Amino acid sequence: MLTLLKKSPLSARVGLIIILLNLVTMILAPAIAPYGETEMVGEVWAPMSAEHLMGTDQLGRDLFTRIVYGARNTITIALLITLLSFAVGSLCGFLAATVGGWVDQVISRIVDVVMAFPTLIFALMVLSVAGTSIPVLIAVIAILDATRVYRLSRAVAMDIEVLDFVEVARLRGEGLWWIMRHEILPNAMPPLIAEFGLRFCFVFLFISALSFLGLGIQPPTADWGSMVRENSGAISFGILTPLWPAGAIALLTIGVNLVVDWFLHRSSQIRSQ
């Protein structure tokens, strides 16, 4: 692992540092934050100072504290959604490719129906009816994202399941789940891992967009997207408070993309050898 990191380009190392800093912040949020998540500790939109490193927000809460807790809330939920969407999407994709026939047709047509709706409009419609609780938010975005994962995993699995070693496994009498787990999944991992990073970025930005529109993570829970919306009025007074959460969103997105680009480049080199 250390040898791999030494051979990695500078951009990938920068991306890894950004991701690690966000993960440490997410895990150690209560220890890092100087104040409580919802504690009002100063004046509204107070400037940066020794007591408030990033100033305060529209209610007088410490902005650095809100950024720290926002990392824990936003990243944790985005990670859960991405893991759930990959579990559902890749399983259905492998199943459709391996079994084929009516199973493939039924699953694919259901996915086509879901994907026919614009993602944001579909999410806004469902969340407006079902509510904006965190379990509902996770379920809705995971289902929407699983359709994209399904398309990729099905395409990759269809290329793999016609190869000789899969046919040999069938002739040995191996079952469906054994073939999916031992033959298809290991060979499909490189594109799926790269897609995981890209999907995480999409989910992360999608949650922030929903929060900005008021249908994502609800106040007083700290969330970077809702923090931009709540403090957007500060721009009219020349106060740059909303740029801090917006910058945090952009920074993590850039970090993940830098690592994904390096992984895609590396996996393509391995396949070409």
Characterization of the model:
- The chain is mainly α.
- It has one domain (65-272): MetI-like fold, CATH 1.10.3720.
- The chain is 74% helix and 0% strand.
- The protein has eleven helices and no strands.
- The chain has helices at 2-7, 10-27, 29-32, 63-99, 101-116, 119-130, 134-160, 164-171, 176-212, 224-230, 243-272.
- Helix 4 packs antiparallel against helix 5 (101-116) and helix 5 (101-116) packs across helix 7.
- It is elongated.
**Strand and helix order:** HHHHHHHHHHH
Using only C-alpha atoms, the radius of gyration works out to 22 Å
Distance between the termini: 20 Å
Number of domains: 1
Number of helices: 11
- How many beta-strand segments? 0
Under CATH at level 1, the class stands as Mainly Alpha
Q: Give the CATH superfamily.
A: MetI-like
How would you state the average pLDDT, rounded? 86
Q: Could you please say which CATH topology applies here?
A: MetI-like fold
